[in-house]
Amino acid sequence: MRYFYFLVVFILVGCKSTSVLDVSKESNAISSYKVQESSVSATLKTLSADDMQGREAGSAGINKSADYLVELLTKYKVKPYFKTYRDTLANFKGTTFNVVGVIEGSDPVLKKEFVILGAHYDHIGISQDGVDGDFINNGANDDASGVTAVAELAKYFGTHKTNKRSILIAFFTAEETGLLGSFHLADKLKKSNFNLYTMLNFEMIGVPMEADYTAYITGFSKSNMAAKINEYSGKKLVGYLPMEFQYQLFKRSDNYPFFEKFNVPSQTVCTFDFKNFDYYHHVKDEFEVMDIPHMTRFIQDVLPVVEKMANAETKEIILK
Predict the structure, then answer these.
(1) 0.85 cut: is pTM over it?
(2) Would 15 be classed as within a structural domain?
(3) Are strands 166-172 and 114-120 parallel, antiparallel or unpaired?
């Protein structure tokens, strides 16, 4: 009997120890992971280079950008969501496509729900009237910076697979011509009974704000997403910008079609505050004026936020 007692205690202690180790291993994956400035810089510089010709939807330049994004998703072990990564728009005059990948969740139930991470990779192309001999609108901040953030998130989750819910990676085209890429994808997913939990979009995060938070969130009062982001990050990562409401930015980026179609929290994070960047839709929106350390810190702070979004046992982010 005494032997049986010690055997039971040994088994219980052993099981408890294993459980602790498993939890520690899972949490340590993200706590020990470091976003590299060199990786952030390389992606941003490639997307905003002159040979991308300003990434206008339907152009050879944006097609070259799409090729690069497909290479990244393949490298980061993110699978295509459709038959291929490229999903041709049905609402665009000409030919252009979103680039869409998926990281399947690990939980047999929660993986049926999706978190979408998005950013638009198109820009406004080449100007007729240049500045100082420069005619290419490189769009480093708008929105190669947001695409770079999503690419870094895809890199982590694609290679570490720590998400219980599935994560859809969406690089949108034709945002500059009326959110056509995101409207196309939202409509297509809605028709297929896609189970969307929440959508987080990244727009113009290339330069820091002067505020007591890192970024603002559009549609601040529409859901509790800001509060949950700050809770998940353990700091005041996002806040409210009055000019966001004044200019109705909630309806002006790729979050909006998903809110409209699915009626779930779908919002954009941004650090452009109308005072900290003079080159909106300008040929001088170039890699050289981006703040890589700021971007790297922000992406690092967002990583645990997305992981907790993907792993929460219930849908904690809700509409108000």
Answers:
(1) yes
(2) no
(3) parallel
